[in-house]
Amino acid sequence: MKIAVVGLGYWGPNLVRNFQALPDVKRVMGIDKDETRLVKAKQRFPDLETSACLDDALRDDDVVAVALATPVSSHYPLGKKVLESGKHLWVEKPFTAKVSEAESLIELAERKGLKIIVDHTFIYTGAVRKMKEIVDSGELGEVYYFDSVRVNLGLFQHDVNVVWDLAPHDLSIMDHLLRERPKSVSAVGSCHVGNDLENVAYLTVFFENNLIAHFHVNWLAPVKIRKILIGGSKSMIVFDDMENSEKVKIYDKGVEVKTKEGVYEMLVQYRTGDMRSPKLDQTEALSIATAHFLDCVKHNKRPITDGISGLNVVRILEAAEKSIKQNGKEIKLHYHD
Asked: Rounded CA gap, 91 and 76, in Å?
């Protein structure tokens, strides 16, 4: 099996390293228009085949899949080319720049019998896999809210705002953990550096049954925070990705409401129990994701983070962008079942 990786900037070399480590992968091809990147990649990975042209990979019958580690604006045109050539597709997050592009790629892959996997890397971490286990077991009870903060100083992107850059991580985690389908989005944001791309934003995602999700993303924070809180009727989860050891903590805490005669007689009691921090699998998420992708290709399985998972995130991002431009107007989400 041979895999081609397009884009050897920041993330591409990580893909090369992980694909090369898989026993089923005989060769990896690295593709980039920048000659200096090709030289650097070849120095780091002597066995890497290199090319400045994607068509070289598409014409190669041994190449079964192509991974795109390129800017989001290129995902649709390049992804379409890859699928039309009969190769399976790995795409960096966010999947595409528009809902219509995501739908088009999913439809094309289905028609051709090909797999799409979107690199929502966090889904494959030990922390998120453990959180999925906890949520699915019913230990949280009814989920009330999903609250996320992802802030740091820099890296300002030149092509997308902070929502498109940082929010996909936590939106993909929310989409993976919660069974409910969001119904609308409201978002506000601000630009402080004069390039018309918001560097701080707040997104609220609404569901049926009073479930609510909130996301705070910011490129202008003095500290780096990566934290998610999930509150349920029985217990609550705190995921702090900056913690070295106890990244996931489950708190046996909650409220119990006892109603008497009138509404003013309502009694809210707080329940405080133990906190536990489960042991997490330390395997590198990208190593699990790349192995999972090849397994899906070989055995015709549906990837965990497939095109639909990518589309669900892009749908919220697109609505959030519309909402920001209209000062937080609530934007309804539309689904084509």
From this structure: 10
